């Protein structure tokens, strides 16, 4: 998984070089993200929207308690992209990047959406 842009890799210490090729995310938001994808594929729109609302609830209520809040933001941003809300997705990716500026997939999402700020 590539999460780095520019010189991010140069700032990794030995410990980070060992684990930075792995993606880590908290279980509950990841489950809701998967539900969003599955219910979308099954064309169960109401259940898909419930999963998205659950992900939003986690982001607004318990994000501070997450071990990987920046990754949760990236999942939510991706859902908002799939909803067609590009400006909202970009704003969420920027929040994620502010939480963890280096070695964050949000950097690539922001570049892809053309919103480098």
Give your account of this protein's structure.
By secondary structure, the chain is an all-alpha fold. The protein has 6 helices and no strands. Helix 4 runs antiparallel to helix 5. It is globular. It starts with 13 loop residues before the first helix and ends with a helix.
Keyphrases for this structure?
117 residues
Give the terminus-to-terminus CA distance.
Answer: 23 Å
- Net shape: globular
Radius of gyration, taken over Cα atoms and rounded to an integer in Å: 15 Å
DSSP strand (E) fraction?
A: under 5%
Please write the string of helix (H) and strand (E) elements: HHHHHH
Judged by helices, strands and strand pairing, the structural class is mainly alpha
Helix residue percentage = 55-70%
For the secondary structure, the number of strands is 0
Major sheet details: none
Mean pLDDT across all amino acids? 85
Low-confidence stretches: none
Give the helix tally. 6
